[in-house]
Amino acid sequence: MKRILLAPALLLAAPAALATPSRVVSMGELSRYITDDSSILTYPGLLPTYSHFVYADLGGPSGISTTLNDVQATGLNGGAMLRLAGGLHLGVLTSDFTPGEQEAFLQQVGTNASDAGGSDIGGGLASLPKGPMRRYDLLAAFEITSRLAIGMRLAYGSNTKSYQPTANEKDTDTKACDGGCARKSDYGALRRVDFSTGISGQIADGMTFDVAAGLNHYGVTYLKDNDDGSNPAFMGGGGNAFEVSARGRFVLSRYWDIVPQLGWRGAFFSLTQDQSVPPLADAFGGNADPSKKLDGGKKWEHSMSRNVLDAGTALVLRAAPGAEFWLAVGMQMAMDSGSVVFTQTTGATRTQDDATRTLSLPYVKFGVEAVPLDWLRLRVGVEKYDWTRAETSTVTRPQNPDKQPTGTWSTDKTLDTAKDLGVYAGIGFFYKGFALDLLVDNEFFNRGPNVVSGASGNFAKRASLSYQF
User: Fold this and answer.
1) CB atoms inside a 10 Å sphere around CB 451
2) pLDDT digits 0-9 by tens, 73-104
3) Which of 6, 203, 340, 371 has its CA at a distance of 20 to 30 angstroms from the CA of residue 429?
4) Residue 279, preceding bond cis, omega within 30 degrees?
5) What is the pLDDT of residues 159-213, one digit of tens each?
6) Using CB atoms within 10 A of its CB, is residue 7 exposed (0-12), middle (13-18) or buried (19+)?
7) C-alpha angle 442-445-447 in degrees, rounded to nearest 5
8) E strands along 63-186, which residues?
């Protein structure tokens, strides 16, 4: 028997929540508040709610704020969730996603290497793979009781890039590539491994909860040969991210529910660009002759940490059978700190420390879902953020061969408040367990149907197809 986590009074007149990520975005990107099949990636304890469920999703926009979530890239994504014997549930998913915090760190690495008086070692950053990672998720959950389930999620994502010359090319031949050039033994890779576990359940009639904690491990590797094929320049590192999320849903009355949620994510990265004594030189046939090393033996040591806090509360109004109104008000704060130590050819070092605080207080999200017909769902959503950003930069330069001033100094900068506004519309079609959900392209409302305006373009910019059996 399918496990039901919501009280009967809550389910009364509530639209079906089986529309994959398109539904959440079209309702104002309320993913941290709405319970949907996409919620199992954050709360694996919800897997039993969506057993015997398969879906395919043509990825697209994911709303404005994705700091606590991975950005799903454009591509074909999908998966299946099944109920096995004895209360055991299993899910397998695959998707393309962009790991935002890892990209932010690599951008900082490139900026700091340049600001510290050097350059990107051997084009290492430029030659790392671009674009999204392909991720594979394995989920499992077990129903402890009819009102309580525990789940886990294990995922692996990677993106690699290497150049394979033709049989007529020499090992030292070069060929143009994105952002630089590569040789036969050049290799770049970005990897990530995720693990999370969570518990979801019903405390009492009209009171449900979801709690989860997770760990992500990142890896970055880049190897590049010199012109003579020896002494590979090495860039390697990675980091870890930890995340905790919790939310509840409480029925206040026949018409009103309240959904508080809290999430924290901390990410910590380090990376070394080394041309002095490449750590893997011997393994790759190199030697320790500094005269053959790019950039004369410079070295960059980068580190970064990011802490993100998201807290808020949503009110849910069931104004009429088949209609829900959501209003969420919350705050999101991201605190980044980074450091780079640049060791020059003379042995002198230069240190730069940066700190950034980005705050949106408050953010507002609004979503409506209506069921005018048994086979039709209509959705509208709005989200608005007001951002304030403050920066502090501290530079220590005890010695510099370019005769720049020595000493330590700091600069503070508060940027003007920025505003982000997203407006969305969606439509869903349902028939005997099948659901087709579309996130409408806003440009469609400007140009109208092709048969009327003659303008070309897509009606939807994201589509999801699912079936529950």
Assistant:
1) 6
2) 667 888 999 999 889 999 999 888 776 677 77
3) 6
4) no
5) 876 655 555 555 444 444 444 444 445 567 788 899 999 999 999 999 999 999 9
6) middle
7) 110
8) 71-72, 76-83, 88-98, 133-145, 148-162, 175-177, 180-182
Buried b (16+ CB within 10 A) or exposed e, 208-246: bbbbbebebebebbbbbbbeebebbbbbbbbbebebebb
Using alpha carbons, select from 324, 332, 213, 321 the residue that is nearest to residue 259. 324
| Residue 154 to residue 214: CA distance in whole angstroms | 10
Q: Is 206 exposed, middle or buried (0-12, 13-18, 19+ CB in 10 A)?
A: middle
Rounded Cα gap, residues 82 and 30, in angstroms: 26
- 357: its two tokens: 């605080």
Tokens 């087709």 sit on residue: 436
Residue 115 CA to residue 102 CA, distance in Å, equals: 20
Query: Position of tokens 């990209």?
Result: 103
pTM: 0.82
Cα–Cα distances in angstroms (integers) from residue 150 to residues 80, 154, 155, in the given order = 19, 14, 17
Q: Residue 171 contacts by C-beta under 8 Å, 6 or more apart in sequence?
A: 165, 183, 184, 185, 225, 229
Reading the block at residue 291, the tokens are 């005269």
Give the integer Cα–Cα distance in Å for 113 and 124. 11
Cα gap 189→408, rounded to integer Å: 36
